[in-house]
Design goal:
mainly alpha, 2 domains, elongated
């Protein structure tokens, strides 16, 4: 395959991928070198592995504190239907409020120590309130109040995106373009490796 034909074929494959169409491994092998195919396969294996990042200890502790506060709040709420004396309801409600406050203060301190903890939280702490609705949740929480459902705080790249990146990198070697023209991915695989290489995370 001559140079111009290969460039044209790569552009066609990129267009197909961006349109949501399937591009087979066989089609990629025709335009990518063995080294480029190997790099693509390695990037995909690394991408899948990087999705298994464990929650930091501070995040797990915060989740436990929120759970305890919610249990207290639930008990206080049920007391209204059990004709419990008002002073007991008030005492337990105050205890629940304090538990929510303690959880948020703990989270704020944890973020001051390690800013990466913020990535695990579903909202800005300035929006927090000390109740079941306003308490910040950890991303991926099953709670109805959770504002972010993704399981990992780091960008997840699909195999389609990695194929596009591999093709555009190959195209760059054949037909150099001005900087900044490569497909806009939020994180390259190298950037992701650096981002998740943080003490406290396990792979």
């Amino acid at each position: 395959m001559n140079l111009q034909k290969k460039i044209s074929r790569i552009n066609i494959l990129i267009d197909r991928l961006e349109a949501g169409e399937t591009v087979s491994s066989r089609s990629l092998v025709r335009v990518l070198s063995e080294a480029q195919i190997s790099a693509l396969e390695g990037d995909w294996l690394e991408e899948k592995s990087s999705r298994k990042v464990d929650k930091p200890f501070a995040v797990k502790k915060y989740e436990a504190m929120v759970k305890s506060a919610l249990l207290l709040y639930g008990r206080a709420d049920r007391m209204h239907f059990l004709k419990t004396p008002a002073h007991k309801i008030t005492a337990l409600s105050n205890k629940a409020h304090s538990a929510f406050l303690d959880a948020v203060l703990f989270l704020e301190e944890a973020i001051e120590i390690d800013e990466c903890i913020q990535l695990w939280v579903d909202r800005d702490l300035k929006e927090a309130s000390w109740d079941p609705i306003g308490i910040p949740r950890i991303i991926g929480s099953q709670s109805f109040e959770c504002q972010r459902r993704e399981k990992s705080p780091f960008p997840v790249l699909t195999k389609r995106q990695l194929k596009i990146q591999a093709l555009e990198m190959a195209l760059e070697t054949l037909e150099p373009k001005p900087a900044g023209k490569l497909h806009d991915l939020s994180f390259s695989c190298l950037q992701r490796r650096r981002a998740v290489n943080i003490e406290g995370f396990k792979f």
